[in-house]
Amino acid sequence: MKGAKRAPGGGRKPKPTARKIAAGNPGKRVLNKNAPEFGKLAAVDRPEWLVDEAGAMWDTVVPLLCSQRVIEPTDLHNAEAFCAAYGRWRIAEREVAKEGITICGPMGGTVKNPAVTVINEALRQMAMFGSLLGLDPSSRTRLMSGSRTSAGNPFAELLGGS
Length: 162
Fold this sequence. Notes:
The protein has 162 residues and is mostly helical. Helices cover 45% and strands 4% of the residues.
């Protein structure tokens, strides 16, 4: 199906040129020489508005992303959104633990606790923004470079292999 048009936004997102270079260009395709480079970050201060668990998540995740040279200045909003969603998720989980999945509604009947909706939305946002940052196993393998050496098989030497 050469030349077939893809639906906008459909299919796998292309790997950034910098990641292809770091991996040794395993597909041997022509690299985009005009890909924008925004620079890597060595360290980033936590935004003041990220507090409690959201701030703690920033302090955990962002230094790791910086040390692995994954995050650029143009990605900071994704890190902020991930951490904010994490904070909302933790608050909502505490609310559900305290009040339960259902609560007494305004008319006296039982209704779903609104915190359950917050949990679901926050988890969805965490999955989306976490994926963009390489914070889940699937997206992390797409971001990892091919230059990492494998430890090899420790038993191969015993069996006369290399």
